[in-house]
Amino acid sequence: MWGMIAPMFLLIAYDAWFSGRVESLLKWLDDWLSISQKHAERGMIAGYLMLLIHGLPWTPAEAAMRILVAGSLGYLMWFMHRRPAAMRNATRRTPWYSAVRALLQVFMFSLAASASWPFKHWADVTHQVAQQLIYIVFFYATDIAFDGSRGRKRKLALAELKKMFGVEWIPKPIPAPR
Questions:
Q1: Closest C-alpha to 145, from 78, 86, 82
Q2: Which of 10, 54, 123, 168 is the most exposed place for a label (fewest CB within 10 A)?
Q3: Contact present, 134 and 51 (Cβ < 8 Å)
Q4: Alpha-carbon distance 98 to 60, whole Å?
């Protein structure tokens, strides 16, 4: 029995570590570059679809298949992006879902390896790995909800600027819709 529980704990611990890295990445984007989670997720959707459609010269059957796959995955990713914060937080904390997310990473990277199996060129492998990495980070990002809390470091930097130069020349920031 303990032989099956130990790998489960490892998967859950890995999932918590990776989720923490994605959350810190999203906070860093919001704090330093003012890119909200919503815009980061939309950028990941666009990047994933561009990497999915881009590739070697196509036959007409491959073109139809890539467009069909890109449309269906784009719809699925948009649906995941539109989930409310309550649903995001509910699925994030379950141990079973943590194990499934960690196993999804293994599946996605094995899919990337099998898609570029003949390894004709190193760029094919990096293209596939980058594509699957964007999807995994997006999948984790859709389980994180900040509930509209703004970046702390940007507020501190603005307060320091106001203290140094006064308040007259600093425009009031436009509230970003979330």
A1: 86
A2: 168
A3: yes
A4: 40
Dig out the tokens for 153 from the structure.
């470091």
Number of domains in the chain: 1
Q: Is residue 88 part of a domain?
A: yes
C-beta of residue 43 within 8 angstroms of C-beta of residue 143 = no
Angle at which helix 60-81 crosses helix 122-141, to 10 degrees, equals 30
Q: Average per-residue pLDDT in the chain?
A: 78
Q: What's the pLDDT at 116?
A: 59
Residues of the chain with pLDDT under 50: 1
Residue 129 lies in a domain: yes
16 assigned to some structural domain: no
Among the listed residues 102, 110, 113, the one whose alpha carbon sits nearest the alpha carbon of residue 136:
102
Confirm if 142 and 88 have CB atoms less than 8 A apart: yes
Task: Specify the pLDDT at position 42.
Answer: 92
Q: What pLDDT, on the 0 to 100 scale, is given for residue 43?
A: 92
Residue 127 in any domain: the answer is yes
Domain of residue 74 covers 34-145
